[in-house]
Every structure is written in C-alpha cells, then in structure tokens.
Amino acid sequence: MKKIKSIGLVAHDARKRDMVEWVEFNYKRLMPHKLICTGTTGRLVEEVFLRREPDKASDIIKLKSGPLGGDQQMGSLIASGHVDILIFFIDPMTTQPHDVDIKALERLCSVYNVVIACTRSTADFVISSHLFEEDYEPVTIDYTNYLTRNV
C-alpha cells in the first residue's frame, strides 16, 4: 500500500448525509488520495469537492449505483488490488435488496486484508492514523493450500 491510497467510498441512502459530512470535514486529508465511489455517493462526494477543491472533483472515479452493479464493481477492484481502504457507511436499520452484494464486499475485504470502516467513528480512526499518510505493507494471507487443494 503506497503513501497515496485508493479509497472506496460507499454509503446507503440513510447514511449518505453522514458520508457527505464526513467527506466535508476530511476533504483536505482525502485530497491527495484516489477516491472511488459507487453511484449517488460519488455524485455527492464530487459536489463536496466542487465546492472545496474544484480541480480534484474530476479525479473522483464514479462506479454504477450499488444495487445496479456498483457493489460488484467495487468488489472487483478490491479483488484485483485496486482498493486499499473501503469506507462503507452501512444502514443497519434498513433491509437492503442487495444485501448479498454488501456481505460480499465485507468478505472480500477480509479475504484480501483491506481496511474497512463501516461506521463514522471507525472511519475517523482510520483517517487519523499515522499509517494513513505512510507506505504500509499489510500482511498478506497465503491461499496456496486452498488454490492447490484436491477436489
């Protein structure tokens, strides 16, 4: 993980306001990093940067909306090593029609040892860590035995 991180930003509808407030508060720390967002979250994050740092707004990568495939796009980026940190503000009080996609993202973060923050408090701790601004080599899990198993 290089000093400049690739950060996935996702928020359920009921948590989008929290994400906007969080990005608004942390935009200076987020500016040097590569931001990858699902659908509407990306549009809202882009609006924050248009107000604060217009030159950075066009650099934000916007995927499809989560339920329309954006979660799978984010998962593919995680599995291919293109996301270092996933900030996913989850609404635990609302049933999501794409709940399996959400669980898949959580699972992929575990499989590939990707930092995941599902609450604003955790995201605050992640972004305020000294490791956030440094190169960092996460411990990788060796799946050779799994890949070479007899089936």
Automatic annotation (TrEMBL):
Pfam family, one: MGS
Molecular functions (GO terms): methylglyoxal synthase activity
Residues that bind substrate: 12, 16, 38-41, 65-66, 98
The enzyme's E.C. designation: 4.2.3.3
Active site residues according to the UniProt entry: 71 (proton donor/acceptor)
InterPro entries named in the record: Methylgl_synth, Methylglyoxal_synth_AS, MGS-like_dom, MGS-like_dom_sf
CDD domains hit by this protein: MGS
Role of this protein: Catalyzes the formation of methylglyoxal from dihydroxyacetone phosphate.
Family listed: Belongs to the methylglyoxal synthase family.
Name under which the protein is recorded: Methylglyoxal synthase
